[in-house]
Write a structure and sequence with these properties.
Distance between the termini: 21 Å
CATH topology: TIM Barrel
Number of domains: 1
CATH superfamily: Aldolase class I
CATH architecture: Alpha-Beta Barrel
Helix content: 40-55%
Number of helices: 13
Largest sheet: 8 strands, parallel, barrel
Bound molecules: ligand LLZGTKA7
Strand order of the largest sheet: 1-2-3-4-5-6-7-8
Length: about 270
């Protein structure tokens, strides 16, 4: 999917919601555990219930690869089940020397047909460029993450440039890619930082995790980070998919996703995107 198509889906659905498929076998309702592939059955029900309210799904790869070959199989089946007009994100946080990154890119863009993958920036250009060589695919580069540990390195300031590390990541990576193939991860837990990030990356989409279970504010994100095309994909994983753990889990997940979509519709109108 290209950027123009993503923007068109956001406008049509009046939503910039990304539902995180962090499907944890421990948290799946008991009645599904008797099925042959509980992870896939859970994801199918979540997708059926939420697909009208979201524009992206983000399976976090750790939840699948931790189950070995069966997990990879559940992931592939889930990816194939997601409607083709919904943007897909492999939250894999990959990145290695160029020769190895090339194979990570092949795994997620050719073996599996994800629209995008999250990539760690710290090994530099040769670790990221192989992912950027694919047409109509996106790299989503970690810039300012939502966790406590973000404070350990990401705010360090360079004596020579005065830039913080996350700012340098955005500035430098913007010379490798462009808004047609490059997005950045910015946590919802630091919404006040989004104004500054928008100065460095006015047109790039930002993937914003941290709304829901991590306590990030959707309002703060929208008010500080929205651009003329929306420019935001706001993710909620646990806050949607585990909103209820009974047999009604999917219905409640659908209601949660709808609530978020309705709030998003308000912000899209406020900023003249729709
Ligand atoms: O900075 C980051 C980068 C990635 N994540 C991932 O997003 C989801 C958030 O899940 P919630 O249940 O909505 O908290 C999860 O897959 C993280 O690994 C992030 O949270 N922050």
């Amino acid at each position: 999917m290209n950027r123009q198509e993503l923007v068109a889906h956001i406008k049509a659905k009046k939503s910039f919601l990304c539902v995180g498929l962090d499907t944890d076998i421990e948290k799946i309702p008991n009645h599904l555990k008797e099925t042959e592939d509980p992870i896939y059955e859970f994801n199918k029900a979540i997708i059926d219930a939420t697909k009208d309210y979201c524009v992206a799904y983000k399976p976090n790869i750790a939840f699948y690869e931790s189950l070995g070959s069966k997990g990879w199989s559940s992931l592939e089946k889930t990816l194939n089940y997601i409607p083709k007009d919904i943007f897909t994100i492999a939250d894999a946080k990959r990145g290695d020397i160029g020769n190895t990154s090339k194979l990570y890119a092949r795994a997620f863009f050719e073996q599996m047909d994800f629209d995008s993958i999250t990539v760690a920036p710290y090994m530099g250009s040769d670790s990221v460029l192989p992912f950027l060589s694919y047409e109509n695919k996106f790299v989503i580069l970690l810039a300012l993450t939502s966790n406590e540990g973000a404070l350990d390195f990401q705010f360090m300031t360079s004596n020579s440039t005065g830039l913080k590390l996350y700012e340098k990541v955005i500035e430098k990576a913007s010379t490798w890619g462009n808004p047609e193939n490059l997005m950045f991860v910015v946590g919802a837990t630091r919404p006040e930082m989004l104004k500054n990030i928008r100065k460095l990356a006015p047109d790039n989409f930002l993937l914003v995790p941290g709304v829901g279970a991590q306590g990030g504010s959707l309002e703060g994100v929208a008010m500080n980070g929205m651009n003329k095309d929306c420019g935001l994909l706001v993710n909620s994983s646990r806050g949607v998919i585990y909103a209820d753990q009974s047999e009604s889990f999917a219905t409640v997940a659908g209601e949660k996703a709808k609530e978020l979509q309705q709030e998003m519709e308000g912000y899209l109108k406020k900023f003249g995107v729709i």
